[in-house]
Amino acid sequence: MQQQQDQDSPADEWLASLNATCNRFSTQYLQLIRSAASAPSSGAGEHDGRSDPRAGGGHMMYLHDPPPPPLAAHVAHSSLSCQLAADNLCVAASQLLSLIRTLRLSLLLMDADTIDVEQHQQVQQAQRDTQRALEQAARQMLELLQRRQT
Predict the structure, then answer these.
(1) Which residues contact 56 (CB under 8 A, 6 or more apart)?
(2) Is 1 helix (H, G, I), strand (E, B) or coil?
């Protein structure tokens, strides 16, 4: 009986998978927002708002001028991060939809007897937990009374 309790039930495994997928979904969404909203950080080589031309920086005076290398690298990095986060969001959404389909299918396949057995097991577990809590409270109350008397 103890060995069976150590193993996760299918419901526990499904819930753990759902939690992991939701965590991945929210993490990747945050990563996408950060990548899309990131701005080039001001480097240590800048003085009075100007870039040092020797550091590869510079200003774009005209539209046809190529961007300075630090800006181009930052844009490329942000673009790649956004694409990766968007792809990961798609994967997480697909996994989430798969979990929802699994849940719906399992609910459709469950019969009344199985549902009754699961409810009965949950009630028994709640009763055992309540009994343990009552016994522990009684022990602590007895210990408190004994300490007060001494």
Answers:
(1) 68, 69, 70
(2) coil
